[in-house]
Amino acid sequence: MYFRTLSSALVLSSLxxxxxxxxxxxxxxxxxxxxxxxxxxxxxxxxxxxxxAVKGDKMATRSKDSILIVDLAAETTTTVNLxxxxxxxxxxxxxxxxxxxxxxxxxxxxxxxxxDGKETGxxxxxxxxxxxxxxxxxxxxxxSGGQKGQMRMxxxxxxxxxxxxxxxxxxxxxxxxVEKMGLATLAGAAGPMAQPGMAKGMAELAKKMAEMGxxxxxxxxxxxxxxxxxxxQMEAMQxxxxxxxxxxxxxxxxxxxxxxxxxxxxxxxxTEEAPAAAAPAAEPAxxxxxxxxxxxxxxxxxxxxxxxxxxxxxxxxxxxxxxPAGFKEVKAKGL
Length: 335
Hints:
Number of strands: 12
Shape: globular
Mean pLDDT: 74
Number of domains: 1
Distance between the termini: 49 Å
Number of helices: 8
Low-confidence stretches: 1-16, 187-194, 241-285
Order of helices and strands: HEHEEEEEHEEEHHHEHHEE
Largest sheet: 12 strands, mixed
Strand order of the largest sheet: 7-8-9-10-11-1-2-3-4-5-6-12
């Protein structure tokens, strides 16, 4: 019994302190808002690259201007501003409290959220790795202010067929974090649309993703309207050039696609719809993603592509998870 206990302890110890690191790049690759985002300001739609490292109970996500350090043992998140040379610390309890306030502010919703995921049988070599597609769909049906609407999010996940040594450390870390933080963590992914119903939907989505196994080499996400008329408008907008006359403004596009609030997401009342701008007959713009998924439509409000690469199970320097010397601590900002 003693030797069995000792053996188990040694195995757990080796699992807890394994290291892993990889790079992740997210960029906008299509959708009717792509050109509009580019017009908002230089770099608005540029690729966002970060390096994620895990060492035991700590994870660090480093981008160009910031570092986010999560410490499961201390139950804290530290945000480092590399430009200002400052940092702030929040406990999990403080983060949960703010998330719960955000959810409460969103108000009650009778949103009905359904999530589905399945293997499609499609295979492809992506970034030098043999992958197969796991396709997921989240359909959100809501009612806000008497206005019903829908949003459809589709995700084409291309999963490595062979196991990447060490990546389990990342998935195990994420599972532990969700266990400690609860639904509030998942609700944060919904951003300004955070509501109790959305939080539950994100939780269900997370469960589906956990079933995939392997490493998500490429994930392509599209937000697709459910109204056939809006799909036609999206296709027309994607077909138009950046300077085409009559192109809707960003505000028009947002109000048309989002319906102003979560409840009307993806659909507007017929009486409020603006007439579609005349557009030349043309095929919708093709996706710039590295692989084409099993999407229901080429039209989308937004298409985002996330790629992972440069996997390494070599030892990660402990300094990666520490605030750089000389940085000043400041009060954490609200969510």
